[in-house]
Design a protein that fits this description.
The protein is an alpha+beta fold. The protein has helices at 5-19, 26-35, 41-53, 72-81, 87-109, 145-170, and strands at 24-25, 57-62, 65-70, 110-116, 122-130, 133-142. The chain contains six helices and six strands; from the N terminus they run αβααββααβββα.
Length: 171
Amino acid sequence: MSQTPIALYKLIILYMLNKAAFPLTSAQISSFILEKEYTNFLTLQQTVSELKEDSLIMARSVGNRTLLTLTDEGSRTLSFFQNSISDAIKEEIGDFFKENGTEMKNESSVLTDYYKSTTGEYEARLIAREKNINLVDITLSVPTEESAAAICDNWQRKNQAIYQFLVEQLF
């Protein structure tokens, strides 16, 4: 079967989303595809947009990230055409997940954002997720943007310890 490069890029994205047990960020998918030099950034963005338009993937913005998930229709489509992806590409994807899987899961499950509220304070929103369920969703009001940014940075590094502390104190 002859296929267009765009069709292959779509299948690669569907395959990656299927292999992951968690949503992937646009940046994670871009990292793999651009690192392997399959295509350029603009073509990749067009491909993701077409997958969304065709309801093969869903995109959800959380904080400053876009999380992508495979829809049922995307899963069915992949099952029909999965054999069109070469074994070499599948192996590269497998290696990418082996090397980056834990970090990628953490990126998708630990989310932060901050913004200026209507009161003039800054609000830092901190989320820890597992299997699309919010384990923790905290919003802290702080006086400065620098404080909000620092809280978000610290949440990325210390979320597990903070979650454990909360569970120990509240149960």
